[in-house]
Predict the structure.
Amino acid sequence: MANPNAMTDALRERFDRLLQDAIDSLPPAFRAVLEEVPVVAVDSPDAALLAQLRHEGVIGPTPTSAPGTPTSASTGGTSAAHQDGTSGDGTATDDDPWELLGLHSGVAITERRVEGPVELPETIHIFRQGVVRFAGGWEQEHADEAIYDEVRTTLLHEIGHHFGLDEDDLEGLGYA
């Protein structure tokens, strides 16, 4: 599938500056979370990550969302993107990997246990192409402002998953 949102090095740098600005704008308590939970910006989820999300039931092989609607789901400590583009069962699609905006992987602090298996560390992924596409693209007037707003919303959404908020909670807060 051809990538409709190809990122050049210059666009990656531009996006990453907006991401850093969004991080810098967060309240100190949220920035402190990011000292423990790294934020990783990548162009789009790779095939291995999509396969893992499919295996975990976070995304499904059958399209269930309207074209252009970012996918959103959470399961077993992994949550993908925001803006609920799921069917009634909460299963997102992977028909377009550039629709994923973000991913919180790991176990939310509300689900951690003192006893039990050691969990992998948490990570927040921000998917540049999904965010840019959902925000309207680089070609629009005031693109940086629109993309910054979506980066910040996606970042706050994924931080919300760190605190154990589900999609309904985040929607109620305006971060869905």
